[in-house]
Amino acid sequence: MNEFFPDVLFFANTPFEINRIMLIRFIAVLAIVLIFWIGTRKMKIVPGRFQSLVEMGLDLVRVSIAEDLLGKKDGRRFLPILTTMFFMVLFMNLTGIIPFLNIAGTSVIGVPLVLAVVSYVMFIYAGVRKHPGAFFKNALFPPGVPKVLYIIVAPIELVSTFILRPITLTLRLLMNMIVGHLLLVLFFTATSFFLLIGNGFALFSIGTLAFGFAFTLFEILVAVLQAYVFTLLTTVYIQLALADEH
């Protein structure tokens, strides 16, 4: 568990303290910038392999998430922030299985919380801009519900819409990355332990190493899915805020 709370490396006792996880986050952001700069600096009508890969990633967010849920007009409006969110989560998740990094930048609450706040602000902004003066009223007091039920409905809508959404977004991403890291540590530590004991116990290391490798592949899938789910839920919240019934 101490790996989630590493020692300060630079700027100790200042608001700009940098530890190992912060360095990993910087590396992930640098990787995003570098990959997209290389992939888009000399774009061709007939793309090469690397440009095609970059375009596939961008199209995944644009077509499968933004435009599919929000339509072309609103999808393009929110596409920059949704694309940034997807690749930021993805790359910081993937640092958990990269040798010498070995911990996700999203496995400490800072990044998941900031992204959840951005998601929260986006959906409220979308709703207020589309339905000024009526967004909060219709969110808490849905039209068509008998007025006597508002005593029950309004508190439920307040909690579910304006309190639980950022909390669940934060915890879903954070817990998946923490559990994944702990599982990998468990399997690979067990492998080292059985090898050091030697004798017949060394055979157990084969099993723990195999499980460790399998869960490493599974973590890649989880990293992609969590990035997709986080971005998808953010888009769904924006879609609900833009819905005409608000």
From TrEMBL:
<feature type="transmembrane region" description="Helical">
    <location>
        <begin position="173"/>
        <end position="197"/>
    </location>
</feature>
<dbReference type="InterPro" id="IPR045083">
    <property type="entry name" value="ATP_synth_F0_asu_bact/mt"/>
</dbReference>
<feature type="transmembrane region" description="Helical">
    <location>
        <begin position="209"/>
        <end position="238"/>
    </location>
</feature>
<keyword id="KW-0813">Transport</keyword>
<feature type="transmembrane region" description="Helical">
    <location>
        <begin position="20"/>
        <end position="39"/>
    </location>
</feature>
<feature type="transmembrane region" description="Helical">
    <location>
        <begin position="78"/>
        <end position="101"/>
    </location>
</feature>
<dbReference type="GO" id="GO:0045259">
    <property type="term" value="C:proton-transporting ATP synthase complex"/>
</dbReference>
<feature type="transmembrane region" description="Helical">
    <location>
        <begin position="107"/>
        <end position="128"/>
    </location>
</feature>
<keyword id="KW-0138">CF(0)</keyword>
<comment type="function">
    <text>Key component of the proton channel; it plays a direct role in the translocation of protons across the membrane.</text>
</comment>
<dbReference type="InterPro" id="IPR035908">
    <property type="entry name" value="F0_ATP_A_sf"/>
</dbReference>
<comment type="similarity">
    <text>Belongs to the ATPase A chain family.</text>
</comment>
<dbReference type="GO" id="GO:0005886">
    <property type="term" value="C:plasma membrane"/>
</dbReference>
<keyword id="KW-1003">Cell membrane</keyword>
<dbReference type="Pfam" id="PF00119">
    <property type="entry name" value="ATP-synt_A"/>
</dbReference>
<keyword id="KW-0472">Membrane</keyword>
<keyword id="KW-1133">Transmembrane helix</keyword>
<protein>
    <recommendedName>
        <fullName>ATP synthase subunit a</fullName>
    </recommendedName>
</protein>
<keyword id="KW-0406">Ion transport</keyword>
<keyword id="KW-0812">Transmembrane</keyword>
<keyword id="KW-0066">ATP synthesis</keyword>
<keyword id="KW-0375">Hydrogen ion transport</keyword>
<feature type="transmembrane region" description="Helical">
    <location>
        <begin position="148"/>
        <end position="167"/>
    </location>
</feature>
<dbReference type="InterPro" id="IPR000568">
    <property type="entry name" value="ATP_synth_F0_asu"/>
</dbReference>
<dbReference type="GO" id="GO:0046933">
    <property type="term" value="F:proton-transporting ATP synthase activity, rotational mechanism"/>
</dbReference>
